[in-house]
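Quiz preparation item.
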């Protein structure tokens, strides 16, 4: 009488593990690239959203609102924050919402830091003051004398640019052909 086999042999199990290992090795670089692109998209989207919020808040509050970037050149150590303009510049390195130069709106810190987006490089360039994007309250236009500008966000070979027009319109485009965005 023949013996019935139930289960896998050791050879079958080893072959299965080897195949899974090879497939995982092939998928890992694509997965890492996807994670990096998502980190870059997250950083660009948060810059876009904060610029839109600053414009909206200026109209809502009938007061100038600034978004100040703390970066003089492309760097991976950056921060930015927004504040209703009151004569004291906003400093995104301040962590006390009650400080006069804190980037806060209604007592809530409005700060984004590079630690949230490791490896992402940010470079802000606006007319007048390179690190300041501001909006006036009447129509949400860019502050008089400031000019249009942009923020370039990069990670390795991918880059997204957030443009602010003189009319205060904000858009995201790609300078490197990143999927999902219009070319600049």
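Solution:
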């Amino acid at each position: 009488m023949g013996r019935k086999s139930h289960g896998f042999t050791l050879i079958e199990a080893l072959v299965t593990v080897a195949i899974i290992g090879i497939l995982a090795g092939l998928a890992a670089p694509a997965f890492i690239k996807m994670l990096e692109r998502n980190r870059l998209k997250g950083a660009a989207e948060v810059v876009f959203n904060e610029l839109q919020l600053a414009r909206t808040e200026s109209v809502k509050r009938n007061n100038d609102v600034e978004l100040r970037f703390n970066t003089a050149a492309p760097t991976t150590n950056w921060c930015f924050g927004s504040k209703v303009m009151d004569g004291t510049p906003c400093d995104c390195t301040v962590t006390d919402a009650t400080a006069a130069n804190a980037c806060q709106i209604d007592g809530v810190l409005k700060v984004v830091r590079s630690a949230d987006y490791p490896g992402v490089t940010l470079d802000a360039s606006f007319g007048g003051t390179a690190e300041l994007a501001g909006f006036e309250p009447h129509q949400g236009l860019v502050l008089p004398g400031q000019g249009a500008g942009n923020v370039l966000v990069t990670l390795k070979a991918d880059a997204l640019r957030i443009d602010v027009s003189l009319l205060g319109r904000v858009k995201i485009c790609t300078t490197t052909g990143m999927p999902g965005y219009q070319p600049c």
